[in-house]
Design a protein that fits this description.
This is Dioxygenase. GO terms for molecular function: ferric iron binding; oxidoreductase activity, acting on single donors with incorporation of molecular oxygen, incorporation of two atoms of oxygen. It comes from Microbacterium hydrocarbonoxydans. The chain has about 325 residues and is mainly beta. About 10% of the residues lie in helices and about 20% in strands. It is built from three helices and twelve strands. The strands form three sheets. Strands 4, 5, 8, 11 and 12 form a five-stranded mixed β-sheet that branches. Strands 7-6-9-10 form a four-stranded antiparallel β-sheet, with no helix packed on it.
């Protein structure tokens, strides 16, 4: 096992590689997505994205969660974008379908059995052999225990997954059957937070752009999808999606987005994603940071998680089975 890096003490507080820790009482590996992105910046420099022509690194800090459970948008001094969305969360997160491409063993492929699935950076396959291309996105969930006065749900495991910039899913789409990128698990810290480093998902025909997630009681429970205590999806805001989909690496996504609304989407249409719309900051050049408050009520019975059979190719089966990927 690799050694957990140790911070150094400075007059301003504990730091790692010259950067002050965002959460000084936590280990370096538990500092959250914005800190991870700054670390990537120092080690790799500006990341060139093939086919996009932009250095997409996240410079915006993830939005903090206010005491009333709503997400407030913030950004650091380097963020010049005025595109942001603030979402107030009330009520339990809606149960939603896991879709036909969950990779949780419920319909065949099972990434949750693989060593290394517990990770923040999901831009590459677990073995590092393949990488997903797109505008970088750091996203964070804060999971609250609705049955216990919205206390932070420390220790729950969150499995998140989403499509590529072309609207395809690893482990299912043609040519991606042996790829495991854009899938990962994180365990909630004392504030109920989990964070991931990924890319902005594309928009395929029949679905609003989104990120899937399942929540498990603990990390030992993830090997059986029936253990999930909540299954839902996070909707990406329209303004940021339009910005990203103007790039050539997301060919087809702009047209697909123009043909659907949150109100007409077969998942978010019940309430236009009132409690599932991400708070976001950033821009296509610097990347984006998204957050969502997720309230889970363990006194209710989960009603989602059973995945349709799906096909081997991403997006097969029409909108009710997950939509169709955009044409190249």
């Amino acid at each position: 096992m690799s050694r957990i890096p140790e911070p150094t003490q400075t007059p301003e507080g504990p730091a790692y590689e010259g950067r002050l820790l965002d959460h000084p009482h936590e280990e370096v590996v538990d500092q959250g997505a914005p800190f991870d992105i700054r670390t990537l910046l120092s080690r790799r420099g500006v990341l060139g994205l093939a086919g996009l022509g932009v250095g997409a690194v996240v410079l915006a800090a993830c939005a903090p969660i206010s005491s009333n459970g709503s997400a407030a948008t913030t950004s650091d001094s380097s963020d010049t974008s005025d595109s942001s969305t603030t979402t107030t969360t009330s009520g339990e997160i809606p149960d939603e379908t896991a879709g036909p491409y969950p990779g949780d063993g419920s319909n065949g492929p099972d990434v949750l059995e693989e060593s290394g699935i517990v990770r923040k950076d999901i831009t590459t396959s677990i073995d590092g052999a393949a990488a997903a291309e797109g505008v970088l996105l750091a996203f964070e969930f804060q999971v609250l225990d609705a049955a216990n006065g919205d206390a932070p749900f420390e220790g729950v495991a969150v499995y998140a997954w989403h499509c590529t910039a072309q609207g395809e899913y690893s482990m299912y789409s043609s040519g991606l059957e042996d790829v495991t990128y854009l899938r990962g698990v994180q365990v909630a810290d004392a504030e109920g937070r989990v964070s991931f480093t990924s890319i902005y998902p594309g928009c395929y025909s029949g679905r609003w752009p989104h990120i899937h997630f399942e929540i498990y009681p603990d990390v030992d429970s993830i090997t059986d999808s029936s253990n999930a205590i909540a299954t839902s999806q996070m909707a990406m805001p329209e303004d940021s999606s339009n910005e990203v989909y103007a790039l050539s690496g997301y060919d087809g996504s702009a047209q697909n987005l123009s043909q659907i609304t949150l109100a007409s989407d077969n998942v978010f249409g019940d309430d236009s994603a009132a409690s599932q719309l991400a708070t976001i900051s950033g821009d296509p050049t610097g990347g984006y940071a998204a957050t969502l408050v997720v309230r889970v009520d363990t006194t209710t019975t989960p009603t989602a998680g059973s995945a349709p059979s799906g096909g081997a190719g991403g997006g097969q089966g029409g909108p009710d089975a997950g939509g169709q990927p955009p044409a190249n």
